[in-house]
Amino acid sequence: MPVQQFCPNATEVVRRLQQAGYEAYIVGGSVRDLLLGKVPKDFDVATDATPEEVKVVFPRAHLIGRRFRLAHVRLGGVLVEVATFRAEQAKSSDTHESGRILRDNVWGTLEEDAARRDFTINALFMDPVSGDIRDFTGGYEDLSNRCLRLIGDPLTRYREDAVRLLRAARFVAKLGVEPHPDTGAPIAELAPLLEDIPPARLFEEMCKLFLTGHGTRTLEALQRFGLTRVMLPLLRATQDGKAETGTLLWAALKNTDQRVEEEKSVTPAFLFAALLWQPVEERAAKYMEGDMTPLQALERAGDEVIGLQVRRTAIPRRFSAVTRQIWEIQARFTRTRGKRVYSVLRQPRFRAAYDFLLLRAEQDESLHPLAEFWTEAQKGQPAPAHHSRRKRRPRRRSRNRKPAAGNN
Ligand code: ATP
Ligand code: MG
Hints:
The protein has 20 helices and nine strands. The chain is α+β, with helices and mostly antiparallel strands. It has a domain at 1-145: 2-Layer Sandwich (Beta Polymerase, domain 2), CATH 3.30.460. The protein has a seven-stranded mixed sheet. A hairpin with a 6-residue loop joins strand 6 and strand 7. Helix 7 (163-175) runs parallel beside helix 10, helix 14 (268-275) crosses helix 17 (317-332) and helix 19 packs antiparallel against helix 20 (368-377). The chain is elongated. Bound molecules: adenosine-5'-triphosphate and magnesium ion.
């Protein structure tokens, strides 16, 4: 198969590095996906050139990263990540006493670079110029057998980096591979290791897990491997084991997968609104038994739930603010009389909140009239006269204007 045709830009990066006298291969997920007949969105290249040397070959490359120092090369609109061969950790100062890797910038050989990768199917190197594949770990055969196998001793490799537990679940969902028993068996028991991973990194993983087009299968995989509880500690405990298909969460993930398929935008704000709705709704119900209004109750419950969740997955404020608004508008939706209708329609997150209401209504028939009301309410009425009395900001004319600070 003339593989270059699927990745002309990555091939060009490899060719130029080779011409400059370096060894270079396409590597990792991109090779795996190409061999599975999928065209990867971005490409990883591994080379024996250091980032500084890569920068000489590609003067416009950006050198990035702390834990992993990389060169980002953009060619023909495609991002190619160029990383220098790395070795497994040798120095104990780079490893936490728990076995966790802290730093990862020890240059190594091609073979060492294969060994430090996570799964065998992620450790294949392809020279797109010659078509050769270098396989040091049996990844090619595992890929043919749809077998997900950690390189080396599974317990050690999971302890070095517990995110590999999540990656296992993600690849099961994304690629339809099955973990080798030695790779799959320890996952549930080791799940608590994820508590020591920085919350910002876990947020990134959550997005990869749920916003890349196979969210429902991912939820199933997380449940199956007992990983949901540690990522979403506020969900009812009964949720570990088997994915519940008739829930808002399930419907939201299905909807998100569909949007990814159609290449529509998806946002962590909506995702977390759905992931956390169950605990928010339960807490809000309790507060309403007291003397809070539905809006006050939802605000309080939303604040609490987000506050607890960010300890595990640090949701950036620009997303969590929108998540809160989506929830709060659910309370405002119950006000279906008079001027308030217009003020709800004008909420900046109306659309997302309305989509959320439709998902709720899918699960709960008693919400059908409310959903219908808001479907109708949107249809075309011009803004009523009393709006013009309010001072309004002039409409933006240019679509290209930068958003106001703090408006993202
Ligand atoms: P995808 O892009 O579909 O998420 P991927 O395998 O390309 O999958 P990346 O996170 O892009 O995943 O990582 C690229 C490669 O880097 C992997 O294929 C693997 O070889 C290596 N890698 C990534 N994360 C780890 C890790 N936690 N431990 C060891 N190797 C890793
Ligand atoms: Mg990748």
